[in-house]
Amino acid sequence: MEELTGKVREKFGLEVKDMADAWKLVEWLEEREWVVYIITAKNRKQVDAWHPRYGTLFAQFGEVPNFGSIFEGILTVALLAKELEEKGTI
After folding, report:
1. Which domain of life does the protein's organism represent (predicted)?
2. CATH numbers and ranges of domains, the chain
3. Mean predicted lDDT score pLDDT of the chain
4. Is the pLDDT of residue 90 over 60?
5. 3-class DSSP assignment, residue 72
């Protein structure tokens, strides 16, 4: 998790320590017209995002984005979306 939070710090200039911090990334995604899908249930922690220009990060490839935690999923999705926007590809 430390590596993931370090990448967020580097790419977003944001120190993420808890869900309140992670939610700032969800708001960042929303501001850029990303629709964020969060599904949580016992043994199921899914986070994905869809954008009218890019499609979904995972579902379009038939993947089920299951993470160890919603926190991890939000950080991962935000990083992937940022990379996609910067480079035009994941």
Report:
1. Archaea
2. 1-87 (3.30.2120)
3. 92
4. no
5. helix
Distance from C-alpha of 9 to C-alpha of 15, rounded to nearest angstrom: 5
What is the residue whose two structure tokens read 């501001």?
31
Q: Are 74 and 5 in contact (CB under 8 A)?
A: no
Out of 1-15, 25-39, 58-72, pick the least confident.
58-72
CB 32 within 8 Å of CB 85: yes
Total-model pTM: 0.90
Q: Which residue has 């043994």 as its token pair?
A: 43
Angstrom distance (rounded) from CA 66 to CA 38: 10
